[in-house]
Specification:
globular; alpha+beta; Molybdopterin biosynthesis moea protein, domain 2; 4 helices; 3 strands
Length: 71
C-alpha cells in the first residue's frame, strides 16, 4: 500500500526542502529578525508567502549563498 505524500515527505531523510524563517535563519546563521527584514526588502530568493506564513526554498538559499544565479 502506497504512503500518502505527507507521510512520505515527513519520513524522507535529509533536510527539508521548504524551510520556516527560523530554520532558514539557522541555515544562514543570522538572527530571525535580520532575515525577516531582508525578506521585506526582497533581498532573499525563494520566498513564498501563504497568507501570513513565510516559507523559503532551501535550494534557492543554497544556490544564492554559493553565488549561483537563482531564477
Amino acid at each position: 500500500m502506497e504512503q500518502d505524500t505527507a507521510s512520505r515527505v515527513a519520513t524522507e531523510p535529509g533536510p527539508p526542502e521548504v524551510l520556516t524563517v527560523a530554520e532558514a535563519a539557522a541555515l544562514l546563521r543570522i538572527n530571525e529578525k535580520t532575515l525577516r527584514e531582508a525578506i521585506t526588502r526582497t533581498e532573499v530568493p525563494g520566498v513564498r508567502r501563504i497568507g501570513r506564513v513565510i516559507r523559503l526554498s532551501r535550494q534557492a538559499l543554497v544556490q544564492w549563498l554559493s553565488g549561483k544565479s537563482v531564477a
